Fold:
Amino acid sequence: MTARCTPCRIPSAGPGRPAVLVVRHAPDALDARSGADPQEAARLVTAARALGEVHVVRLTGAGGGASDDAERVGRYGARALHDVRVGGDAAHPRTLAGAGAGAGAAAVADLAAALGVTTVLLGARPHEQELAALVAHRLGAGLVTGAERVEPGPDARPVAVRRSFAGTWAARVTVERPRAVVTLRTGGLPAVPVPDAAPAPVCPHVAGPPAGDRGWRLVERAEIATGDRPPLVGADVVVVGGGGTGGDFGPVDELADALGGAVGATGVAVAEGWADAATLVGQSGVTVSPRLYVGAGVSGAVHHSNGVAAAATVVAVNPDPQAPIFAHAHLGIVGDLFDVLPQAAAALRRLRT
Amino acid sequence: MKIVVCVKFVPDIQADRRLGQDGRVVRDGGDGTLNELDENAVEAALALAEAAGDSEVVALTVGPAGAEDAVRRALQMGADRGVQVLDDALAGSDVFGTVTALAAAVRRIAADGPVDLVLTGMAALDGLTSLLPAALAAELDLPQLTLAAEVAVEDGAVRIRRELDGASETLAAPLPALVSVTDQANAPRYPNFKGIMAARKKPIQVLALADVGVDPAAVGAAGARTRIVGSSPRPPREDRVLITDDGTAGTRLAQYLAERKLV
Structure:
């Protein structure tokens, strides 16, 4: 018998095709500011299609959530959009942080079980990694994090490919449990619409009150102003300044603006007080998976490289030809960033006009 | 206040690493050490204990014989005592196996007095399993406050600040709770001679799985939920272009991006 969604009776999948759940989980404030985020939903749904019939779960707090709409996910082949409303924090309704994450995980796990899905796919941002761990714990599922791609396995379960050791090794990982939870770094992945797409039917769900809520709560959330530039998370283009800037981020900002990209910084630049801690890219800060990463005056210490391993194209500018960053670079330029970046920015502005 | 801080022994991050036939990490050369991100967790535990007074800091590890070094380092920094879960059946544990053993050990430590706070680093530098804090909190049914750049305890509640996703968040929870700290949280103290000498007299309790009531089949390679079925070193980028600036590199960079439709 085919599993069906309880409220809407949408069958989970057709014969011989497993069901796959794509989970969208983001504070809406983030989503509203980041034009790249809907693109991530498209990439996730495209990747999930290779594994089976795709159901998208949209987790929303009391005041909103991930802004994927039915038309958009339908265009990429989603079978249904499950709109799960989580109680959230009354004082801070615009976020799923705090106890809302636990309730969200419970709702996702319940839906995964009801639909009989074999794979739950999420993005790989910190909020999503935590949600993935909670969902996998509830489902007793195998968990693979930060995968660079997923493929159908010999049975209904996926094979995930992930990199280790700052991207120097690639491992193929299978799960030893009936279900898999995989977080995917989507930056290098394609978003391919399906022909004859129709909007996905929307199925509303209401998650129960947060269980085990013992006052775990968000006290305060302040957006960090990024001016006219896109935020780092979800940015398509990221230009990072490191120790080689000597504290002058002018050329880094200029190139980022010419590319319409976000500005990031390495641990050295943050430690020196040249850049805000919120702009830290790497293991201790933001993990990025942009289409283009430009590292300027960045040596490529392993803590930083781990955070950029998923970038689709890596460009590095550094005066030291032995800098480790060049091992990761598609285009490496041995040179002075104060010469190279302004010249590149000027040339890009000319291309635009 | 009783604080358990989880530490892990990892190879020197600069040493060569590879994945063996069985998919496990093989460490070639280089000295092992306390996972450097865990030093921030130890420092946070010590600072919170000093601020609260009348506190105990227990350094806990799950791992092979060499893992004792990670606990010893925590004791040198100032932790009061160590607990190591040591059992051959633990070899090959994934994050959930490790979490099962850690959670059982925390419950055992709580048997002689409740644990107020469980602290971890943000990730292990070798396997990068940053999921451990979230999974451990779920297993222990504790509120989780992760990726703290600041942490403070006041009036029976813990409060953290974290910066992620373009926002600064302050989260709070009543104790007991689990907190993971980042390397932005503090500057770990370096053990001084007195600390090193004092650590020699501090006890490290070694427990087998049976001592903490864990079924060996639930952990280790036997209980692992994922399996590495193939691994290979990634070849150097074949399409790599390395140029030296001759005064036109900026323009060539712009052309490179335009050709690849990245502008």
